[in-house]
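Comment thread on ticket #2218

A.B. wrote:
> Attaching the input chain for the structure job we discussed in standup.
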Amino acid sequence: MKCLLITASLHNQVGRLEAALEIFGRMDEIGVLPSRSAMNILIGELCSMSAKEGSVEKVRVKNTRRPYTILVPNVGCNSNAISGSIQPAIAVFRAVHSSGLLPSSFVVVKLISELCRLGKTEEAVDILMIAEERKLTCVGEGYSIVIQALCKHRRVEEVSKLFGRMLQHGLKPKLVVYNSIISMLCKLGNLSHATRVYEIMNKKRCLPDNTTYAALIHANGERKNWKVAYDLLTEMLGFGWIPHFHTYNLVESLLREHDQLDLCCKLERKLENKKLQKLCKNGQLDAAYEKAKSMLEQGICLSQSARDTLQDVFQKCGKLNVVRQLLDTTNRV
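C.D. wrote:
> Ran it. Output below, let me know if you need it in another format.
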């Protein structure tokens, strides 16, 4: 059986895969189990075939004077026997599980991923629960895949249940999980729960990124929570993240709307200094020099951190005098 499956894998022969499924069925009837490697190949190939069903592939037409490429529906995956290849994959998984075996973790992840891609999240959760019960190493990754899929469909209750289960079992959600949940809740206007997830994220020492802050800032902006939006943007800059133009403009507009002009100026200084430091860290010396010069001409003070960074990178290149001359000239003016 293993040799037959390897041949099917190498040559993508649907007929051979059908034969492998038939052999597996007979083995299951008489209580003979396949090896784990054969089981991995069978489920893996079925998942791969499912991913190709309905896809479009490029086909090169060569039997003309001028060869050309066309897009055609994927053929070779639409056999009536295996149409809907994910169902046989689930059937094989359940059959081996009922016999006390499970495929390798990477195959379980592949199966869960394909189920989520097809929108079959209930089946994905069932398999995830089996993997959790058997304490497979892929449980954390499985949770991440399923939660992201549920967030895309805004199924809040199921997301909340699985997220709580992750924390209860001591699993550490990845940044992408937190971002998916926070973004979903913000889009649904559930700012209080989004903030709570953000607090859990901080408690678990998972550092936020641009996506995290953007979602929370825009959600607070819609509520006119200028203070919270300002604090989040300041915190974001503190971590070295440069906000998107629309995110910055939203907070600036809120501050002006509430007559917080001093905070507007303070925010601008922070942003410009962070931009300068980013140019320095990226080794863009000419751009960093022009940026510093422009800031000083506009009366925007360089922070001590930005000054130190600017001087350090120019010193390493043997051009420290150039920067000192710029800073000294501006100070005299």
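A.B. wrote:
> Thanks. Noting for the ticket: Residues 1-53+75-103 form one domain.
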